[in-house]
Design goal:
- The structure is a homodimer of 210-residue chains.
- Chain A is α/β, with parallel strands linked by helices.
- Chain A has nine helices and five strands, in the order βαβααααβαβααβα.
- Chain A binds chain B through residues 119, 121, 123, 125, 128-129, 132-133, 143, 170-173, 175-180, 182-185, 188-189, 191-193, 195-196, 198-200, 202-205, 207-208, 210, and chain B through 119, 121, 123, 125, 128-129, 132-133, 143, 170-173, 175-180, 183-185, 188-189, 191-193, 195-196, 198-200, 202-205, 207-208, 210.
- Strand 5 (177-180) of chain A pairs antiparallel with strand 5 of chain B.
Chain lengths: 210, 210
């Protein structure tokens, strides 16, 4: 039971993944992946996190020359290294057993594991509300600043996916279930979602030759 | 609890709606709407069904001159009549109480009832399989013919929606839940979906002024 959660920034996808993990009793990996890479290679976590945002683009040689030509050589090398490590880490986690992986193109990386791919989204007002409610005391952004951030983060996620596959980030046909969390308490929806996933893994249609 | 089910041709949306209706104990309307209109107005069902496919386009005067200029006047009049009747019928059914309505742009027509809008889809192979399995003994279509039919029906559904709204048919942001039925036994998924819908209607977030 490998589950991947892709999500729009501010839609509550991370919360949904974490709560699903508790309900199903299986581990959930999000920033933990960054922490593990940092620990294993003696890097600073923030540094890994920063590079990992560019990492997927850099993980393939043909993109390096095109996109990273102006970057200092040592940054490029580290970025590629982290991308490769992230991919290996995700594959390693999946091979250990049931788990949930949030973001990081895990739906594509783990294709051969036939994961259940979830996409979480919400309308702009709901995402704005969520971002404001969850901001720390020191964060004071205007609505426009938050909206810009939303667009930037989601654009980057879509772009990262581009390097793995031609299929589009957020297009429903690339996911098994798409959930709109607008105005809803995520924790209340968890029992039904976890029930759905358990059924999904156990209800393959008998295939008839066509 | 008003539920609308939009679906790709061959994805099993109708089966899902009917089974959901049994699970939730509320009525489900699909072709019944055509039957009711035919009965009320003394029309032949097939005639109503045929016209209703064009009906939404014709329901608004501004579209008539543009799109129906070459149609005989009596056909145009009947088409508009049936479109208006269908709309009234859908509103009437919703005003009577909890129900499920399949297709017919009910998600748009019933906007003010704040329905739960479901979209059902599947990959082409799964839809093809479903069409073949469900064909009657007298129906012998090639795979290409079925695929053409799929494209035509879905294109028509998308076009009908165009006349009510600018939002796109099948785009996840216009639905609360999108379900991929590819290779799955729909009946096995019903308990979790009905549970999800019940929770959805009962878990509005407390709104904080932003």
């Amino acid at each position: 039971m490998i589950i991947t959660v892709s999500r729009e920034f501010g839609s509550g996808g991370r919360e949904l993944g974490k709560r699903l993990s508790e309900a199903l009793g299986i581990p959930c990996y999000d920033n933990e992946i960054i922490e593990m890479i940092a620990k294993e290679h003696g890097f600073d976590e923030q540094y890994v996190s920063h590079l990992s945002e560019k990492s997927i683009r850099a993980a393939y040689p043909f993109t390096i020359s095109r996109r990273f030509a102006v970057m200092p050589d040592y940054v490029t090398k580290q970025t590629v290294k982290i991308a490769v490590e992230q991919r290996k880490m995700i594959e390693g986690l999946a091979s250990q057993g049931d788990c949930i992986i949030i973001g990081r193109c895990a739906d594509i990386i783990l294709r051969e594991y036939h994961p259940f791919n979830l996409f979480v989204y919400a309308d702009t007002e709901a995402k704005l509300r969520r971002c404001i409610e969850r901001a720390s005391e020191n964060e004071h952004f205007t609505h426009d600043e938050i909206k810009r951030k939303m667009r930037e983060v989601d654009k980057n996620r879509a772009r990262q996916r581009d390097f793995y596959t031609d299929t589009k980030w957020g297009a429903k046909e690339n996911y098994h279930l798409c959930i709109d969390t607008s105005g809803k308490e995520i924790k209340m929806l968890i029992p039904a979602i976890s029930e759905y996933i358990k059924c999904w893994f156990g209800c393959d249609e008998q295939k008839v030759f066509i």
